Give the backbone structure.
Amino acid sequence: MGKIKSQYDIFRQKVHIIIYGTSTKAGRLFDLILLGLILLSVVLVMMETVNSFDLKYHYELVTLEWIITIFFTIEYILRIVSIDKPWKYIFSFYGIIDLLAIMPMYLSIFFLGTSIFSVVRSLRLLRLFKILNHPQFTSQSVQLKQAINASRGKIVVFIYFVLIITIIIGSLMYIVEGKESGFTSIPASIYWTIVTLTTVGYGDISPVTPLGQFIASFVMILGYGIIAVPTGIVTAEIAKNSQKQNDHFKPQACEGCGDEAHTTTANYCSNCGHKF
């Protein structure tokens, strides 16, 4: 005879289904509410740094932030209560992030005017990774992770090549332009090379000699190719993995009944039992 659950055990089970479950309506609704509050909280953090807006709506901002903090506090407590090993969650990566999400407002009571709390509250965005840990997104994240791991060697070699090119071009620009043009040292010239390669172009340092401008033009064109290469490497691996999966699950027809709803790994027909 099964053990009769207490009201507390039933409550823990229901809370666990809502908070950790992603396949139930209540679980999906909870994730949507949590997602909305996280995004709203980050918007509030940004708007607090706008002096004119903060002066006009300071009370409303603080009130909303306290409401969000109280919600996160209740959620944090419920997460601890609803699992069998609370310490495992508390000291996990997401557990620490959840704690950091609620601490700033409480600490602001004792330490006023500390801007670092705004940065800590922005860490709530990291909780989005936990919300996106949904079966619908998991397969996509696994494919991306596999593609990045498979491309890791190529990307490391490519970055090493870019570093060498950057040092060479930076040293060359230091010789061609000199200190008079703002290329005061090789590190400063390497900084200019990186800024130009990435097509950022701050403009704080710029070549003035014809040869330096020619080299700069070459670096600008090279930058577009450098940006595209890592993307192409990862994309090629994703396409390769997708092709492997398509070949693995390519349907085959049954000679007995003609049913095509079988993968290449099937040994028998699910419709008539015919052996492939």
Summary: Residues 69 and 106 are 9 Å apart (CA to CA). The mean pLDDT is 80. The two ends are 47 Å apart (CA to CA). The longest helix spans residues 135-177.
